[in-house]
Structure formats: C-alpha cells, structure tokens
Amino acid sequence: MRGIRAVGGLTNWQSSAKRLADSLGVIPMATRRRSMWPQETFHVYDDTLVSVELLSAQVNITQPSEIALYLKAFEELRSMAVYGAEARALIVRAIGALT
C-alpha cells in the first residue's frame, strides 16, 4: 500500500499485536453477526459520561437516557468482536498485508 510505512519492523508489530489482542476486540469485516456499523467514534468512560467525536466537535453526553443508547451500541459492537488468538491473527494478517 502506498503512503503507509511500517515503523519498528514487522517483528516488533507482531509482538505488540500479541499483547494488545488479549484486551482489544477486533470486529472482522466478514462477520455475519454485524447488526450495526458505528456512526461516529465514542468513548464510554462510565455510566455518567460518554464522549462522542464528530467531524467538527467533541460532544460530552451526560443524560442517562442518551448514555444508555451508547452503552447498548457498545455491547452490540463488543458481541461482534473477537479477542485473544483470533484477534491476534486478524491483526497480524493486516500487518502482513502492509508489507
């Protein structure tokens, strides 16, 4: 791929991928269970704050009914994700595609 440069070497990326995939969920592009696509980037901090990143602003959500929508979306996305060895394999495969 043009414009993408690997930093730190493939071995370093692969070892980082092994550590990261244990706690990072990866949603495979080919998942059949995909019930939604994220509309924007959001971070759930707790049950009192969700931060949403839009093109022009960052919005902090504090209304419980709105936070509930993001918690539901997070759970749907989490249920589609793979973790551990399966996530690690996807990450390593993506890194391999860049080299």
Q: What is the alpha-carbon Rg in Å? A: 16 Å
H/E topology pattern: HEEEHH
Physical arrangement of strands within the biggest beta sheet: 1-2-3
Given the C-alpha coordinates, what overall shape results? elongated
State the distance separating the first and last CA atoms. Answer: 8 Å
For the largest beta-sheet, the strand count, sense and barrel status come to: 3 strands, antiparallel
Helix segment count? 3
Provide the helix percentage: 40-55%
Give the total of beta strands.
3
* Structural class estimated from helices and strands: alpha+beta
Mean pLDDT: 80
Strand content: 15-25%
Low-confidence stretches: 1-6
How do the helices and strands line up, and which of them pair or pack?
Elements: H1 9-20, E1 41-46, E2 49-53, E3 58-61, H2 64-80, H3 84-98
Antiparallel strand pairs: 1-2, 2-3
Helix pairs in contact: 1-3
Description of the molecule:
The protein is of the alpha+beta class and 99 residues long. It is built from three helices and three strands; from the N terminus they run αβββαα. It has a three-stranded antiparallel β-sheet with strand order 1-2-3, covered by helices on one side. Strand 1 and strand 2 form a beta hairpin. Helix 1 packs antiparallel against helix 3. The longest helix has 17 residues. The N terminus is likely disordered.
Brief descriptors of the model:
99 residues, alpha+beta, three-stranded antiparallel beta sheet, 3 helices
In short:
Helix content is 44%, strand content 15%.
